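Example (one chain per record):
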Amino acid sequence: MNIELHEVLIRELIDQYTDNDESGVFGYCGKLNIRPPYQRNFIYSDEKQKAVINTIRKRFPINIMYWVKADDGHFELMDGQQRTISICKYYKNEFSVEINEKLQYFHNLTKEEKDEFLNYHLLVYWCEGTQAEVLDWFKTINIAGLELKEQEMLNATHTGPWLSHAKPIFSKSNCPAYLLSKDYVRTEVDRQRLLEIALKWISKNKVEDYMNIHQHDPNANEMWMYFQNVINWVSMTFISKYAEMKGVDWGALYDDYHDTMIDTTKLDIEINKLMEDDEITNTKGIFSYVLTRKEKFLNLREFTPVQKRVAYNKQNGICPHCKNEGRSRIKFSFVEMEADHINPWHLGGKTIPDNLQMLCLEHNRTKGGK
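Predicted structure:
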C-alpha cells in the first residue's frame, strides 16, 4: 500500500458537505465519502465533539486521519470519521462551544475567528492499495483509540448488498428492529450491537460463517423475518413485560419452544411468583427456567461456608445416606462433602440451616430433585 502525508484545510474539508443519513455523508468538494460501508455510525458524545472543536481553536494538533484514494481522484475516509463529522457539524451550526464564557455556534464567530477555524491544517494520509490491503490497514489503525466492536470489524470485511440492506434495519437509532424489540433487547444500536444479536440468533452463534455465506445476497430479508418472528413470539408468550427480559437469549428459546403449546396466562402467574422468590439470585434466568425447567438459570441462593461447617460438625462428617446404607462408620473430610437442601427448592425448600444436610460427593451428585 502506498501512503502519502498531505495537509487539508478545514475549509476544503467542509466544501459541499452533505449528510443524507443512510444515503451517504460526503465532503471535500463531494469527493470524500465520509461514511463508506465499513465505517461505524457517528457515536461521539457532545463532550467529545466539543473537545475536537476546542482543540482546533487552540491550534493544537488532532490525530492524523486516513483517506483511501481511488483511481478517479475520489476518496473514502478510512479513519477519522468521528473527528471529521464533529468539524462539519460545528460548521453547520448543529452544536455550540464555550468561548470566553459564552456558548457560540459557528455563525456567532467573528470573521477573523471563522477564518482561523477554516484555515486550520488537518494532517491526512492518502492511502492507495487493493481492497484487501485497505481493509487490513483499517483493522490495524483501529487497534488503538476508540476500539471497534467485533461486529464493526466483521462489517468492515463483509461489505456488500446484504450488509447495505441490513444496516438501516438494525443499525440506526429508532430503526425498525430497535422499535420492535426495545422492550426485550438491551443494545447499543449505533455500535452494531442489535445487528450482532440478530446475527447470533439466526446463525446459532456462528456470526462470521453466516456473513460469509450471505455477503453478496441482494437483501437481508431472511434475517429480518426471523428476527420479527422471534420478537413476536416473545411478546405473545410472555404477556407481561419485565426489565429483566433484556439480555435473554430469545433466539435459542424461540428455536426450541415456538411450536410448543403454552398456557400464557398460567406462565405469567408463575413468572410473577418467581420474581418474588428471594431464593432466586438471577431473575433474568426466570424466562429460560419456566420453559426449560433447568434450575441452573436461576442461580439459586447457596448456603454460606459457616452454615456448611456447622452442619458438617453436627453430623460429625457422617453422610446420612451412607448411614442409611449401613456405612455409618465412614467419616468424610469437610472437602469430601457438599451442601444439600433436605427439602429441594422446587418443593418449597429454603436455604436455611434447618434445611441443610452435608452429603458425600457420590450421594449428592446422584440425589434426585437437583
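Caption: The longest strand covers residues 2-9.
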